[in-house]
């Protein structure tokens, strides 16, 4: 574990399952203080209880990243309690897959609201205090879908390409706040269990069951970027199953 002088206050969105949960566990075990946010607070409470019982430092807050007020409260509460936010991991995301012609407009908007607007809300909430302190680290979980478009994933890919563009813009404008994009390939999580065209989701689930890497592999990539000294900014990591085409 890191010495207490290097302990960071790390906020993680979408920490109730999958990659966010794994990241919270990984960074807490590394000695950082983690603040878990998501809507399923029962899940968050039991993860925090488990981490605390293991002697780690963790807390949780109810969070809906589509609501700017909720994101500001998530960050504002951490700033009040700890005086700073060192790292924000913008991880919350949804992936209801379907062909465009199915016109599942509500799900398109949900992906834009969670995957893109949610990241913007996170940036807006942490950037002022990070700028004031002259340090900080904003991590976004994008996807291999931010590098390549596939059928049934056009809107999802559009949101993830946008997140990469946003992170690159933020990096260019920033000389003190670090910016990292971690882009996973197929990863074991609950991402494919919610929404989308039933047949398409089932096919994606079948691939994931066959080839997905554990969420801890992505958490370790995030942990690597977080562990670098302040002057070293790891801008992008792609981590996917070896067999993924
Ligand atoms: P999960 O479904 O397991 O986790 C998604 C998390 O996002 C949950 O904690 C969920 O919590 C949270 N979330 C969803 N909507 C909201 C919201 N409105 N406000 C706050 N939190 C929300 O999937 P993953 O762990 O796989 O997903 C994490 C990230 O990884 C996503 O951005 C996803 O796009 C990305 N990714 C995943 C890949 C994979 O193969 N699994 C591959 C590439 C990228 P709750 O419902 O409790 O709010």
Automatic annotation (TrEMBL):
| Top-level taxon of the source organism | Bacteria
Task: Identify the stretch annotated as signal peptide in this record.
Answer: none
The record's SMART domains line, in alphabetical order, gives: PKS_KR (SM00822)
| GO molecular function (one) | oxidoreductase activity, acting on the CH-OH group of donors, NAD or NADP as acceptor
The cross-references to Gene3D superfamilies, in alphabetical order and at most eight, read: NAD(P)-binding Rossmann-like Domain (3.40.50.720)
Keyword match Oxidoreductase: yes
The record ties this protein, via InterPro entries, to: KR_dom, NAD(P)-bd_dom_sf, Sc_DH/Rdtase_CS, SDR_fam
Please state every residue range assigned to the domain named Ketoreductase: 8-189
Q: Which UniProt keywords apply?
A: Oxidoreductase
Pfam family membership, one: adh_short
Q: Which family does it belong to?
A: Belongs to the short-chain dehydrogenases/reductases (SDR) family.
Protein name in the entry: Oxidoreductase
Lineage of the native species?
Bacteria, Bacillati, Actinomycetota, Actinomycetes, Kitasatosporales
């Amino acid at each position: 574990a890191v010495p207490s002088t290097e302990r960071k206050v790390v906020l993680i969105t979408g920490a109730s399952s999958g990659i966010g949960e794994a990241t919270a566990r990984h960074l807490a075990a590394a000695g950082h203080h983690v603040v878990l946010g998501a809507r399923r607070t029962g899940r968050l409470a039991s993860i925090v209880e488990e981490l605390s019982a293991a002697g780690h430092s963790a807390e949780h807050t109810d969070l809906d990243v589509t609501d700017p007020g909720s994101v500001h409260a998530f960050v504002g509460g951490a700033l009040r309690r700890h005086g700073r936010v060192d790292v924000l991991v913008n991880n919350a995301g949804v992936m209801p897959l379907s062909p465009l012609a199915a016109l599942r407009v509500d799900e398109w908007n949900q992906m834009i609201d969670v995957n893109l607007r949610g990241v913007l809300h996170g940036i807006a909430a942490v950037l002022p205090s990070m700028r004031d302190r002259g340090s900080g680290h904003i991590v976004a979980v994008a996807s291999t879908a931010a590098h390549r478009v596939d059928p049934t994933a056009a809107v999802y890919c559009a949101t993830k390409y946008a997140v990469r563009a946003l992170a690159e813009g933020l990096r260019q404008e920033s000389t003190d706040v670090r910016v990292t994009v971690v882009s996973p390939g197929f990863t074991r999580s609950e991402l494919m269990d919610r929404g989308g065209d039933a047949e398409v989701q089932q096919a994606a689930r079948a691939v994931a069951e066959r080839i997905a890497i554990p969420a801890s592999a992505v958490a370790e990539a995030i942990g690597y970027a977080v562990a670098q000294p302040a002057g070293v900014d790891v801008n992008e990591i792609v981590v996917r199953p070896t067999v993924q085409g």
